[in-house]
Design brief:
The structure holds 2 protein chains of 2 kinds. By secondary structure, chain A is α/β, with parallel strands linked by helices. Chain A has 3 domains: 138 residues, Rossmann fold (3-Layer(aba) Sandwich), CATH 3.40.50.1980; 106 residues, 3-Layer(aba) Sandwich (Rossmann fold); 159 residues, Nitrogenase molybdenum iron protein domain (Rossmann fold). Chain A contains 17 helices and 14 strands. In chain A, the strands form 3 sheets. A 5-stranded parallel sheet of chain A has the order 12-11-10-13-14. A 4-stranded parallel sheet of chain A has the order 3-2-4-5, sandwiched between helices. In chain A, strands 7-6-8-9 form a 4-stranded parallel sheet, sandwiched between helices. Chain A is globular and about 80 Å long. By secondary structure, chain B is an alpha/beta fold. Chain B has 3 domains: 118 residues, Nitrogenase molybdenum iron protein domain (Rossmann fold, 3-Layer(aba) Sandwich), CATH 3.40.50; 136 residues, 3-Layer(aba) Sandwich (Rossmann fold); 110 residues, 3-Layer(aba) Sandwich (Rossmann fold), CATH 3.40.50.1980. In chain B, 46% of the residues lie in helices and 15% in strands. Chain B has a 6-stranded mixed sheet, with helices on both faces. A 4-stranded parallel sheet of chain B has the order 3-2-4-5, sandwiched between helices. In chain B, helix 2 links the parallel strand 2 and strand 3. In chain B, helix 4 packs parallel to helix 6, helix 11 packs antiparallel against helix 12 and helix 13 packs parallel to helix 14. Chain B is globular and about 65 Å long. The chains are: A alpha/beta, B alpha/beta. Strand 1 of chain A pairs antiparallel with strand 3 of chain B.
Chain lengths: 467, 452
Amino acid sequence: MKMEAIDKSKLLRHTPNEIKERSALTINPAKTCQPIGAMYAALGIRGCLPHSHGSQGCCAYHRSALTRHYKEPVMAATSSFTEGSSVFGGQANLLQAIDNIFTIYNPDLIAVHTTCLSETIGDDIPQIVNKAAAEGKIPKGKRVIHTNTPSYVGSHVTGFANMVKSMVDYFSTSTGKRKQQINIIPGWVEPSDMEEIKRLTGLMGIKSVMFPDTSKVLNGPLNGKFIMFPDGGVTVEELESTGDSIGTIAMGLWASEAAAKALDTKCKVPYAILDLPIGLKATDRFIDAMRIMTGVSVPEAIEIERGQMLDIITDMHQYFYNKRVGLVGDPDQLIALSEFLVSIDMWPVYVVTGTPGKAFEKRIMEITAGSPYEVKVKAAGDMFLFHQWIKEEPVDLLIGNTYLKYISRDEDIPLIRHGFPILDRVGHSYFPTVGYKGGIRLLEKILTAILDREDRDSEITNFELVM
Amino acid sequence: MEAINILEERKKSIFEKGKENHELSCDKVSLAGSVSQRACVFCGSRVVLYPIADAIHLVHGPIGCAAYTWDIRGALSSGPELHRLSFSTDLSETDIIYGGEKKLEAALDELIDEYKPKAAFVYSTCIVGIIGDDVESVCKKVSQKKGIPVIPVHSEGFKGTKKDGYKAACHALFKLTDREPAQGISKCSINILGEFNIGGEAWIIKDYYKRIGVEVVSVMTGDGRVDEIGRSHGAALNVVQCSGSMTYLAKLMEEKYGIPYIRVSYFGIEDMSAALYDVAAFFKDNLKIMDKTKTLVREEINKIYPALLEMRKDLTGKKAALYVGGTFKAFSLIKALRHLGMDVVLVGTQTGSPEDYKLLKELCDEGTIILDDANPLELSKYIIEKGADLFIGGVKERPIAYKLGLGFCDHNHERKIPLAGYSGMLNFAKEVYDTVMSPVWKLTPRMEKNGR
């Protein structure tokens, strides 16, 4: 039998070398479904309880997945659908849920997202929320917002983008009087990244509203208490004020464009869509966009950070030459990472995202246009295909989420954990990869991975003390 | 910390021994709007069938359900690793509109051709129940075409609680029984039901039964194989652990094949020993088995007892809170913790039945809080009020314990070492000891305040 004949030291031993066209099957996905993205985004509003309008399993899975990634309690409620709700609609469940949530957990607002189930049976969330309001189930000053997150469209990134857009739809207001502040939509990045982006705007002397903002929510301190709503996140007042900002910087086309556009349409706030500020060039563009939007000049402190990052790049560039890299992750992250790698003479050769979108493939091909290697890129792909590519011709380094560790082990290729989810390491919540400081950390990780491997594999005669 | 309120409707699901005397409300879906720690029907089916390592597990639905259940259980296999891959039909919008049957069939064809599995399970998720795919007939068709069992698992998330998912899994397993000849099976033979080989636990248990002269025909489902399950109807006795998930299958097998069953637990010294003695007593005609059992129990306890006593010195009087899936595990843990000198101050389960809770009330000490389907607020409230030093739970409970500044032990999917059997009891004690006695709690604010 086939299974017995294969290498038992390999966990992914069942992955055949030969690539066949698959029409109906996803193996080892490089994405997950919309609602978890909406839940993550909603956690970035202060005093917000995300609410999953569907079966209780959805909510449990999302909370577990986020908990495993952040090592933090993740609070969210569920409509706990039953067979009855699937026939008669989930109105009664959501009404009861809203009532219960405000009675017991007392959040400032509830952010409802749908699921494949409630989408398909056609629940009209705004109508149900209006009914809840009419029945006095929403206390004065409290809010219920919603977004539609059908799990069978897009990916977790889409769900995130949808919830961020809903923040604009529900809150952004134009009073007609511009405020000396900018909006920053950071995209799906870590709480640490959000913190770093705020630090940079602070160094620039710019007042900004960032949404969502999960810093201090999902990387909070231990204080001996269980706090349902941690002291972090963008406030409703701040969200309302985004309509008066002088401009919006939206990072990442996939995660942030929808909200930026909606804000422009609704409140005439002009926007710039940038790549995530990962790497020197993308961070330069971010700093420059802030400078142009607000007319401030770049302070010396930022120049120094930039210089430090550049210094490390040149100091160590001999180890980067022509290294082949395989990446799996979300479109915005992969685009920024690819550009960064190319800028230091490392080459993304296999790039896979589970999120659909041909524009992604085109952009990666543009970024890697001068590559000495053949580049393979796939949107709506999976890790099985990625692995088969590697079996055809290996790479020197893998960058992606924890699920890449199977391939890393089987093929003996070093892995840098980046993206979502990271289930088996810490650090991502506390150390950013955006900005120049984040770039330095990323460089450190890349170098450590490459040099550790060199140390491990070198002959005694060539074993180097100084590198 | 401010006093934490409890929802009026939830009060029926909470019980403090010695203070109250109402029936515990349970066996219901969670209240809409509560931050429940529970999962769904699909989750129940998925965790039960997951360890069968030479079958394909295809999740029919949008990607999420397959993504969230990809290799999340440390159910070890001694052979194939097919169960650790994630297969999904990844339904998209057009499939929702036009139906997913064609895609399901194509996915099964592709999978079976590629992997040559012994069987395939097809899990229906919420959406499949709504769009009305005839999963049953697709499975039948593919099964005929490919010559292997292709079994639909009716696990639409909204069709009940996690327990209903266990039931759906039992139905699926039952379809795999009586498919292989049962010749050559010893008269003294058992199936082990409800043991999932987390951290290699089934291997420990199997070894014990082997040593007392009892043949294990199949384990359902730890390190499970389709052909072994196919012979399981030839066993003389079903030994059911994790009663919540597998008693239903035992009843089905009793009805059809006349196999009686007993309920056991492999956690803790008493329960592990009882699990062996009860089996030995069942095969009373074979006196050797009882003799061997006595020897085994004596030897194994002697191996671990001195170390347990040593740890007990420091653990005596420390307080533990439990939040586990089924009540049977809770019973064992309470007994095991008492062995270590610890007091159990809170017991919660996700899926207890009224009978289970009655037994639990009897077993607990005065003042112990009993909770059905608790939420994080309730759990933290009682942990703080009762001054617990240890929290035993699963993935979502871990960070709550740590934020409050107390020790934690995973007794769920994320445990890394075997906790079953005698060696498992020692592992458990070590884990409890290491976390409860860890100096890190001296750094946390809660402990400072309490002066411990």
